[in-house]
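Journal club prep, shared notes

We agreed each person brings one worked example of a sequence with its structure written out as tokens. Mine is Class I SAM-dependent methyltransferase. I'm keeping it raw so we can talk through how to read the token line rather than staring at a rendered picture. Sequence first:
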Amino acid sequence: MRRAYDDLVQEAAGVSVDGWDFSWLDGRATEERPSWGYARLLGERLATVGSALDIQTGGGEILAGVPTLPPVTVATESWPPNLKLAASRLRPRGAWVVADDEEPRLPFASGAFEFVASRHPVETWWEEIARVLRPGGSYLSQQVGPRSVYELAEFFLGPLHGSARDPAEAEREAEAAGLEVVGLRSERLRMEFRDIGAVVYFLRKVIWIVPGFSVGRYEDRLRALHDRIESEGPFVAHSARFLIEARKPDGPTA
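Then the structure, token by token:
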């Protein structure tokens, strides 16, 4: 039985959006995963080093799922609800969880880590990453690519122009910071939203898709999208992801 608009929206508006666990969307929305398998790659890298830093760890979901953590594992996060979740997941495994303010400088000594990772960082601080890496150390990051989920954003906001998340620009910035880019891959991935509750939940959680989103502010567009899904089927969008791997050349610690 199809559920009414008000029921779907009320449910999605009341559920917690803390952390980066999207399991609430099971059966209501889908998103293809990048072919490279970030969690698997992260686990492989972490198994070979003695010290690692995960920047902007969110609720610690990805790092907590890795089979083996290095003896020295540190994660940073700024948003208090996520910080609490990350601590509950990672501290029992011996990892340190550090609060930061999402602005350079990273609160660590130069050359402190063999490996640095970040999944979907808001901003990549290339110079700071290069500073805290040991010579010969490496950085692995899956990032949001250009025009990600623009179909959904433009439904609410109208036509959008330009995108700041360019993989080629990330490569240039990494090299400018003194890192050697050893891998760069990009993919666009199909997404489907099967009911308006899934859309509301997603926009509440991924706040940069429609900045300032609220049910009240976008009531008319939400009802229009609900009617469209009911008559035409799932709303289709495409996420953009790129994987970048960089290495700090051997030499004196910065």
